[in-house]
Amino acid sequence: MSTQQAEPESQEAPEDPAMKGAESPAADEQNGGGMVDEHAEKAAELEGETVHIKVFRYDPEVEGKQEPRFDDFHVPFEKGMTVLDSVMYARDEYDSSLTFRHSCRQAVCGSDAFFVNGKQRLGCKTQISDLEQPVRIEPLPHQEVVKDLVVDMDHFYDQMHTVEPYFQDEDTPPVDDLEEQRQSQENREKIKMSSRCIWCGACMSSCNIAAGDNEYLGPAAINKAYKFAMDDREGEEIKEHRLRILEQEHGVWRCQTQFSCTEVCPKDIPLTEHIQELKREAVKKNLKFW
Amino acid sequence: MSQSYNRGLIEDFGRWKEFSAGMWAWIFHKFTGWMLIGYLFTHIAVLSTSIGASSESTAVIQAENDVYTTTLQGLEGLFLIRLLEIGLLAVAVFHILNGLRLLMVDLGIGLESQDKSFYASLLLTGAITVASVPTFMTEVGI
Ligand code: HEM
Ligand code: SF4
Ligand code: FES
Description:
heterodimer, A: alpha+beta, 2 domains, two-stranded antiparallel ribbon, B: elongated, binds protoporphyrin IX containing FE
């Protein structure tokens, strides 16, 4: 609970929903022990089925939140409710300081990957009814926490950019000779799954090798490189250039086929398969028979 | 970023219940691989201490009084050694079966069934281990 909300003037009516169903150690301290029972009563006041979520809280700029803790919220359940819906409800109704990223709410923008009940999942794509309660919602592991569920994604983006995630050609023809670059249907199918990445970072966060080796490109970046390396419209030379990036010490060979990334990817990209295929490409490129 | 919080390695062994098949396969493969290396050195140590038998006369060897025979018979007479042998078999069989699974994964074959092939390796290891018990446990402790 933030300080503003505990102040009496921010409570419009005695029936202020801000206190309903929310429990947090800090709020208890601020309001004195007497509030505890009242909290429980108010949680019970919520009509119908509720879901119990435990949300990771941390804010280096607010006293009392510098030490990470979990806040409990009881959110009224609705059919079709996602994990993202539940934290949005908690933020809108109980504690406006609860911070997390989200935008599209339809698994397109990739901003709301959280660590939910011990697994990297997209908040907006995870039905809360599929999870065991209380639902534990934490920021992505192996990335530094900026505030509450918001993690620092800079390193992830750096790795993505290392593989030059854009279409390249040996040289651009003169303007008059420019023509549509067609891709065969088969080739489109080949790179279809790899093109679905939404840069959510769930895979990187789940990878135990990436956690131990900060320079490892990681599954998302390798998959991004796969998308272009396998695209027939890019020339041979460009493909070689891509493989040179991938076969470096902290490239594809770091992967130990734990399948963690493939398990968590919300877009069902067969990441391990793509990494393994690039390993074989790298071997083929370097094999010489004298 | 002025300040941020590093939670360290979240997925430590405290969260082992949340590990998936591929993760377990990886852990077991490391474990068994290094156990086999450990056994290799123990094996070399035992054999090199008992190799003195080669200089013994035929009569001593036939009487089973040479270092090699007495060392090995002494070890095989221990219940603990028999147990460890079963363990060694289990470790080796799992490493081989999962090793074959990993080779398939490297070749890009059947990646969508990687969890099933891990469970199959486990089951087969268990079956082979159990089947080996009568052989390993004959005449123990006499
Ligand atoms: C038929 C027999 C065997 C097969 C098929 C096999 C297969 C494999 C494979 C595929 C790997 C690579 C794992 C990965 O990609 O991460 C591996 C690793 C390893 N193996 Fe084996 N192996 C066999 C026998 C042995 C033996 C006899 C030993 C020991 C004397 C051994 C010790 C190891 C070790 C130490 C590792 C490395 C573990 C690590 O990465 O830290 N293996 N094995
Ligand atoms: S590969 Fe999957 S898990 Fe990884 S960033 Fe892309 S969408 Fe997210
Ligand atoms: S909010 Fe856009 S992916 Fe979940």
